[in-house]
Amino acid sequence: MTIAIANEDLFGPLLRNIDAACASRGIALRRCSLEECGELLLASMVDAALVSPLGYGSGVGRVDYRIVGGPCLALQDYTHVFGADFTPGAADLLTYQPESKAAGGQGSFMSTIMHMTLSEKFDVELRPAQAGETADCVFGAPPSSAMQSLDLGEEWFDLAEAPLPIAIWTIRVDSEIENFDALVADAADAALQQRPVSELVPVTSEHAPREGAILYRWSDSVEEGLVATLNALYFRQLLPEIPAVKLYGRD
Asked: Is the pTM here over 0.85, yes or no?
């Protein structure tokens, strides 16, 4: 039995004790990107994985999944996790530069949602900048002290009025892993339910700090956000149909 976990630092609170939790149960681990976790789960190469909503939705009509309604990661309003900056001198908003390939590149989930959200809010169809072309905006994780023009969590919350789930524990119904909900609960930092985030602004600024939170536990609002995300992915033709949200032990 094997599970796949995302190796990005962002998901650290969900994986604080993952090695011990899996070792005590005789379960092997595979570490890769969040996008690769979804691919491995779909290909039956692992029994369960930490995946994005796109990774979960990709199984619709092909394999039966269940989500653990416990530890997860979602962005609620401003979180300074991922965003977009306008290129100085850009006159239009027509092209974008995705984050580096090391961070997932054009196909990463956060880049995909950033693109969808800006296209919807500004009523434009952003396209990737071509080689040698200067993009109108650049996607990616912000430097720790920098203020980005557009924040993914904030822009999505303004559009959907719900948190944006980034990573959810998902298991195949034919998996032989028992009590998977207990495993992921043991793996997580139990003391951390959410982390409030407040924008750092100069004391002389007239701009009020943007605020939000990184959520680490499933809730009704996170489920609402997942439904909104799956609907958006379907309407952008990234999913063949809208998947039902099925929870481990409930559905």
From this structure: yes
CB 137 within 8 A of CB 63: no
Q: What is the pLDDT of residues 23-62, one digit of tens each?
A: 999 999 999 999 999 999 999 999 999 999 999 999 988 9
The single-letter code of the amino acid at 46 is V
Maximum distance among all alpha carbons in the chain?
A: 58
Is 246 buried (19+), middle (13-18) or exposed (0-12) by CB count in 10 A? middle
- What does each C-alpha distance from 74 to 1, 170, 224 come to in angstroms? 27, 15, 11
Residue 88 to residues 93, 137, 149, 152: CA-CA distances in angstroms? 12, 9, 11, 20
Residue 86: how many other CB atoms lie within 10 Å: 14
Q: Are 14 and 49 in contact (CB under 8 A)?
A: no
Nearest to 98 by CA among 152, 139, 143: 139
- CA dist 212 and 153 (Å) reads 8
For residues 131 and 97, the answer to whether their CB atoms sit within 8 Å is no
pLDDT in tens, 207-230: 778 899 999 999 999 999 999 999
CA distance 161 to 117: 13
211 forms beta bridges with 198
DSSP string over 20-38: HHHHTTT-EEEEE-HHHHH
